[in-house]
Amino acid sequence: MPIPRSPLQAGRSREAAGADTLDGDDRAAERTAPDPRTPDDGAPGDSARAGAQAHAGDDAQAHARNHRARHDCLIVGAGPAGLTAATYLARFRRDIVVVDAGRSRARWIPRSHNVPGFPLGVAGPTLLERLRTQAGEYGVDIVAGRIGRLERADGAFVATAEDGRSWHARTVILASGIVDVMPAMPGLEDAIDRHVVRLCAVCDAYEARDERIAVYAPVEEGIAHALFLRTFSPRVAVVRSEPGEPSPAAAQAARDAGIALWPPSVSLHHDGECCVFIFHHGRVQRFDTVYPVLGGDAQSQLAAGLGARMDDNRELVVDAHQQTSVEGLYAIGDVVSALNQISVGVGHAAIAASDIHQRLPRNFRDATVAG
Ligand SMILES: Cc1cc2nc3c(=O)[nH]c(=O)nc-3n(C[C@H](O)[C@H](O)[C@H](O)COP(=O)(O)OP(=O)(O)OC[C@H]3O[C@@H](n4cnc5c(N)ncnc54)[C@H](O)[C@@H]3O)c2cc1C
Fold first, then answer.
1. Which atom of ligand 1 is nearest to the CA of 26?
2. How many Å apart are CA 104 and CA 82, to the nearest integer?
3. DSSP class of residue 138?
């Protein structure tokens, strides 16, 4: 069996899943022809200057300068992937700006145990804070805002935020992630915090060893995830999120693995220790952990507007340097068609940032600066 990608990657639409998303949609942008390899029209500045200029929210003058400047790179999104790319590019002394809508998936992580270098685990918000601090050490500032439009003009990318601010950049890294489709249940955030709802089997099934686990999903996808979870517990079931029957092969695989298949429930709630499904005729079933597998909305709309190639889940297809099919437009992290993991996004960031540095006009160090 192929290892399923982490739950909520399936990219099923919100409507199809019949559930709630936790974020809004971006608007797609107008399609234009790309050409980022343009001659330098101004000396690339140190990232410290970029950072100072980037804090445009409070300072109209700074923003006016920012608007006119052509940055080496605009990074859309300050999750683990975007923040890592920012640190790399700032350390390459590139003039960058980061714009972020503040909805990183990592903020949901109560404690991750598979991020390299944290033997005792790390909470998502702590990791984000540390990555921000690290980028800040090199002068990167992060502008709060949501880019609503990305287009090409005069050999550069022009990104416009929903509040009208805009930035020009030679290259763009899209690190905008995905938005999880969540089950409709009261106290969902608390349930995640208490580990009675988990969202990523690759991330944390190890911590759910031997628990009573339910996968809440359309039955065919549910069985695939349940089979993956059987590595960790002998007590795994599928609760259908919608009516449907599995293929004979999937049904047989479920039987062979001892995976019970439940019909759609009437409701789902948690009591702090367990998730509780209530079925028709009042039957109640409790599970220690529920993994919803309802899909996710890849935040690829900006790239789609420029004609970038995507897979069936609307996740971006990139080359070996993380460049999309649009010249100069890179994508990293969850928005890319790949395994949705922090360490993967961080690796993407290193690759994209190094390639961007190599393609941009050289920024030789001035001898007078070196003394
Ligand atoms: C409960 C939970 C537990 C998890 N546990 C683990 C774990 O243990 N280990 C692990 O490796 N992974 C884990 N993950 C997955 C991990 O959180 C993601 O893989 C990671 O956050 C992806 O990073 P990213 O930078 O690509 O995207 P994100 O962290 O999602 O950041 C994207 C950022 O871009 C912003 N953005 C989007 N569109 C725009 C726009 N148009 N303009 C401006 N900003 C925009 C968003 O607001 C957000 O701030 C977990 C996820 C969840 C939900």
1. 41
2. 10
3. T
